[in-house]
Design brief:
The structure holds 3 protein chains of 3 kinds. Chain B is an alpha/beta fold. Chain B contains 10 helices and 5 strands, in the order αββαβαββααααααα. Chain B folds into 2 domains: 119 residues, no CATH class; 116 residues, no CATH class. In chain B, helix 3 packs across helix 4 and helix 8 runs parallel beside helix 10. Chain B is globular, with a radius of gyration of 20 Å. Chain C is globular. The relative contact order of chain C is 0.11. The chains are: A alpha/beta, B alpha/beta, C alpha/beta. Chains in contact: A-B, A-C, B-C. Chains A and B meet through helix 2, helix 3 and strand 4 of A and helix 6, helix 8 and helix 10 of B.
Chain lengths: 144, 267, 671
Amino acid sequence: MSDFNPKIVAFVCNWCTYAGADLTGTSRMKYSPQVSIIRFPCTGRIDFMLLLKAFASGADGIIVSGCHPNDCHYSSGNFHARRRWIVFRSLLDFLGIDVRRVRFSWVSAAEGAKWAQLVNETAEQIRLLGPFKRYHQLRGLGVE
Amino acid sequence: MEDLRNKARELLAAKAVQVVVGYGRGTGASRRAVFIQSAAEAGELLFDNACRQNLAVYLMKPEVRKLGKMALVAIPATLRTILQLASENQIQDLELLALVPDASGAVTQLATFAAIEAHVVLQDNDLSAAEKGELQKYEIMGMEQRRQFWEEHFSRCLKCYACRAACPLCYCSRCTVECNQPQWIPVPAHDLGNLEWNIMRAMHLAGRCINCGDCSRACPVGIPLHLLNQKLISEVYTHFNSRSGMAAKADHAMSTFKPNDAEDFIR
Amino acid sequence: MARIGVFVCHCGENISATVDVKKVAEAASRIPGVAHSVEYKYMCSDPGQQMIRNAIREKNLTGVVVAACSPRMHEPTFRRACAEAGLNPFLCEMANIREHCSWVHEKSEATTHKAFDIVRTLVAKVKRNKALLPIKVPVTKTALVLGGGIAGIQASLDIANSGHKVILVEKEPSIGGHMSQLSETFPTLDCSQCILTPRMVEVAQHPNITLHSYSELESMDGFIGNFKVRIRKKARSLDEKLCTGCGLCVQKCPSKKISSEFDAGLGLRPAIYVPFPQAVPNKPVIDREHCTYYRTGKCRLCEKICPTQAIRFDQEDEIIEADIGAVVVATGFDIKHGDFFPEYGYGKYKDVIDGLQFERLASASGPTLGEIRRPSDGQVPQTVVFVACAGSRDPAKGIEYCSKICCMYTAKHAMLYKHKVHHGKPFVFYMDIRAGGKMYEEFVRRAMEEDGVQYIRSRVSRIYERGGKLVVKGADTLLGSRPLEIEADLVVLATAGVAQAGAEQLAQRLHVSFDAHKFYAEAHPKLRPVETNTAGIFLAGACQAPKDIPESVAQASGAAAKVAILFSQSELVREPLIAVVDRQAPPLYSSCVGCFLCQPSCPYQAIEKEEIRDRDGQLIKTIAKVNPGLCQGCGTCVALCRTKSIDIQGFSHEQVYAEVLALLNRGEDNV
């Protein structure tokens, strides 16, 4: 298991977390390379279906992150996102899907260190949980 | 029962409505929807405890809608559906009548959304004790057990979309499952597609489902779909203090927010 | 078939030190659809950009991915380069392999691999990018300024002097705002009205300014460049065209004992009144609540006496509609009144007054003609206590913020008192002195050193009456918190500056956001201090936060400059990264079912209803429509729409879906 390199997809908003991750870079803080970022204008744009697609395509873990409450570039996109995540996370849990594989966070453009920490913690968590075989195997018949 | 039939005769004879959608004799003890278009047919109408289908589903079917103004025999969930559809701009006030039979067989006629709202607040719109109990049974299960439970059920899903056809709130003219650019939900009825389909349906009904249970009753392979919807009804009520189908103009839980919506997992 | 060009940057060694850029470029060349893949030392340099331009022309590229730094850094640079070579700039994407990869990971195969993953993801995206054209919105070159205080006056004059029309709306009968109530202004002690009234007159006479006093904004629709407003002009009960402002009616009005708002309750006025002698416009208004005729049906003395027959008792409110291109909100502030300070006896003792009341006492045009006489008995107070931070910086009172102007005006009050009552003893109770500003610290020093104002660093615990004196209790924190008491004849509370009553309702009418204290929120606290989150609406003055006169004026000129920039072109050009609702051929017309659940989710009220009708005008269906002038492109509606009928340009369903699959090495973009 020790050579397991998890695949983690991060869905982040352009204005806070993407910029925060830029700051991690400009500050030369190091973090685990297993995480790659997909940029969205706002957390309000992040469709729960994309999270499902990421798992189905082989992601072992997911990070969803945007502006802190009251800091949204679009004033309320993150509040709408938060409601959806509350419901979506409950549903996943109810279906027996391990919600520890989806990490939700607020990371501002100033929190470069928090981004590095978030990535490292998530990577560690997913490493402990192991590959998300259960989900990946669901492809079953393999016809599409 | 006679009250209901007389009411239907009266409405049809006076041309107050063009069709009465009610319950009639089905196979064995079951009941099925009947579409009464003349006073002479009103004798087919029945009402008893076996009448469980949410007839509001026909409000959204073009072939029924084109028959003209409709009177709908309504159980509590039907009334909530009418209000929910109104709040989603799908039906207009005065476009339909609701006929609500009580235990004694007497019929109350509700002609406006305001009258339906006044009636609905008096109903018990919460999940029943039995429903809550059943939900809890799964909530306290271990995650792995829950996963197995649903995996077993979803493995039988045929992707026949009977749940969608039975659901009065699945009225979209192009369902996301029919989008192919991109193809959000895989077409074949394999485990992944089945899971994604059912997650998507539950999410799309979050804050909207009025708990009629017709999805589960329609499912030919017996998947307890109502559990998913009831789970989210309960979550939406607990977290956002919101209940669907209560008013013809309403703030929808999933398209509004409060700055202090509480959660404990975003860090 | 797509022909994508991939340009991998070394960024000197910033990228190439940890990422094997050659390998990335080579691997990228094998991605289906990639027609050209190279690496170069500095892509952003002139030769680097030239490489991109040449490749676009020579290889006929349909899309470009620059694998380099963050798009927040150089996206505009590379999009411009593409445009120069004739490629639509929105067909260029950046793969961030520096901030998100080379700088945060050690040199390793995994790092190179990740860099390639990022490139592959962006290639998958750019294949689905669409050429987009900037959105052009027409602009109505008329500004609406709400509030005729000094901020609104300054903004109106600046906009008008730049050659554009202004409609200035003031809710009171006269413009002038709080500044017209002030006696003298810190730190120069020049007379407030002397510097203000010429500006007021300029407003009244300016050919580009239409002034609606005694009016309020009723409603507003539309979006930047294209607002439609309705203004309620309240009935003055007289014909303004006939009225000459002779003032005879004001003199003869029999109900004269009405508390004057202008004198902050310390003076009296008649029922038909002009708030102050230099009012603009200088036309009276009948206070219907107190007028004998409106109360009893009898009197009409003013009507009889008016030489031009201008009185109109039956006048009704008038609604004025106007097309507006931009709005400056300058509705100002208020000070905390009432029973907010029971422990200070405010409202209970006549001689515990607030700062605005002291201004009126000190003003030559005030109820005492500028003599400092206390309200209870008209005596000249021998000892005056000034309490700074009365409510401000007090979380227990619910006002955590500093009201900013009180330190300065309290020093000014104490100084004015000393100038007028030479033997008088002024005391100032303060928490800290905040005198940041040109000549401000010097001013406070002068109060202490030249005018002998005694400053005591103490909060006031209680004020009560004892033997005709007001006892002010505190504890001098600079003398070991020794308790102390001062027997005063007059107490002046520098009460907190707060948002105007009705600020929230106005914000809702304007669709602008506000903070927890109902002060209007700027778009960015540092870099966009005069903009609101709603495009085309700007802020000036104390409606945003307590401010002094120079700051209000500066911000007003800033807001005016923003308006002038907007009005400098007849069309507004915007980035086209906005949401659009699906339209398709009949019989579906659109996959939108018109549930309008998206409508409340939009932070910008950009979602409208569109009716699709047949040739005979019969309604076929009602669907959502995104107003391109209002949409800011957050995509909140996009993720909400069940039928995926709304999509957002630049972050479309197809694009992000392909990104997810490509990142995880699935889908058609596999190598």
